[in-house]
Amino acid sequence: MAQELGGKSPNIVLPDADLPRAVLLGVAAAFRNMGQSCSAPTRMIVPRNVAVQVEALALAATEQMIVGDPFAEATTHGPLANRAQFGRVQRIIEAGIDEGTNLIAGGAGRPAGFSKGFYARPTIFSDVRTDMTIAQQEIFGPVLAILPYDTVEEAIAIANDTVYGLGAARARQRQGTAALGRRSHPVRPGASELAGMGPTGSVRGIQAVWQRARVWHRGHGRVHGGQVDPRVLRMNRCS
Fold it and tell me: What's the N-to-C CA distance of the chain in angstroms?
């Protein structure tokens, strides 16, 4: 018997968040190790009135990423683990396109310059609804879904609308409290709060993480000063 601990972790960007910083770190976290992380925050839930700004910031973040040979000095992101996973990622990207989302970065196929290998394009969809495949299924690849909300209560409902429960995050600028799942927790200024959530959305544990100017994402690289540092951990070559 094999059991798999999946995730479809939400990242709620609250209305008072430092938007450029929150989006940059959110994209970097979602795409670390090419999205091959069960706790990757692959649903970015953002205020509807700043959705266009979020799209532009997310696109700019992906444009800094260089997918390629892990042994090449300029590479920031390598290939997916195997052929089966590459195929699954491609099928779900195509499903996202077919469901009528707004594709703002990437898409199906390999990056320019690659005719073989398990290299996927960092892909971002916006205008995503919770009933769509890309909002419900764990992709385990470099695919981010941006979902808009009008109220914080709606954002929490979107975050909890999943059968997975592994983790959650939120970005907030001011000190105060915000509800996630069935509890309220204090949030320090500039903090990203991570919570382990059960399948029904109940909060099972909480860990506050204070992001500094320089953040290390294992398997992805460093993010500091608004740039992705090309000095990254090298993943195994995959051809």
Answer: 30
Question: What string of DSSP letters covers the chain?
Answer: ---------EEEE-TTS-HHHHHHHHHHHHHGGGG--TT---EEEEEGGGHHHHHHHHHHHHHT--BS-TTSTT-SB---S-HHHHHHHHHHHHHHHHTT-EEEE--SSPPTT-SSSS----EEEES--TTSHHHHS---SSEEEEEEESSHHHHHHHHH-SS--S--EEE-SSSEEEEETTEEEEE-TTEEEEEEE-TTS-EEEEEEEE--SEEEETTTEEEETTEEES--PPPPP--
Please indicate whether residue 238 is annotated as part of the active site: no
pLDDT, tens digit, 9 for 90 and up, residues 54-63: 999 999 999 9
Asked about 94 being catalytic, the answer comes back as no
Q: What is the pTM for the complete model shown?
A: 0.73
Mean pLDDT to the nearest integer, 180-208:
33
Residues 25 and 31: their CA atoms lie apart, in Å, by 10
Q: Which of 38, 94, 99, 154 is catalytic?
A: 38
Give residue-wise pLDDT tens across range 131-185: 999 999 999 999 999 999 999 999 999 999 988 777 788 887 754 434 343 333 3
Contact 12, 148 (CB under 8 A): no
